[in-house]
Amino acid sequence: MQKAPLLEMIISIVILAFAGVVTLGIFLSARYTAVLSSDKTNAIYKAQNAIEKAETGDFTQYFDENWQECDENKAAFVLKITGNIKNSFYEAKVSCEKTAPYPFLRAGSEKLCAIEFGRALR
Predict the structure, then answer these.
(1) How far apart are CA 46 and CA 81, in angstroms?
(2) pLDDT tens digits for the chain (122 residues)?
(3) Residue 48 contacts by C-beta under 8 Å, 6 or more apart in sequence?
(4) In what order do the strands lie in the sheet with 77-86?
(5) What is the pTM of this model?
(6) Cβ neighbours of 84 (radius 10 Å)
């Protein structure tokens, strides 16, 4: 009769440990979701600035973790503008991506924004 309380305690400890792991995973996921949200806001802001300054042709810009311009080998984020000219009209796409995936988030979360735009050439 002494084994039943011991078995109940072991089962309770396993359930508590499992609940702790799940809770920790939820908190870590929430943290990186907030970081992703902040990075998307910064990416859209940088993309909008790049659109306003865009010339005809392709353009690549690199940013570090604090969204400061940097060299390609120190880049945490890459902003690219690819475009072409058709009948006196410049069509382009600007995209911003994180160079490394976010931990604890689904694959593909490193793509922060993609905006298509066009303008008439003078």
Answers:
(1) 12
(2) 566 788 888 999 999 999 999 999 888 888 888 988 999 999 999 999 988 887 777 889 999 999 999 999 999 999 999 988 888 888 899 999 999 888 877 776 688 999 998 888 77
(3) 115
(4) 59-63, 77-86, 89-98, 111-120
(5) 0.74
(6) 12
Whole-number Å distance between alpha carbons of 69 and 72: 9
Task: Give the angle 73-59-113 at the CA atoms, nearest 5°.
Answer: 80
Residues 6+ apart with CB under 8 A from 114: 93, 94, 95, 96
Q: Identity (one letter) of the amino acid at 108?
A: G
**For residues 112 and 120, what is the distance between their CA atoms, to the nearest angstrom?**
27
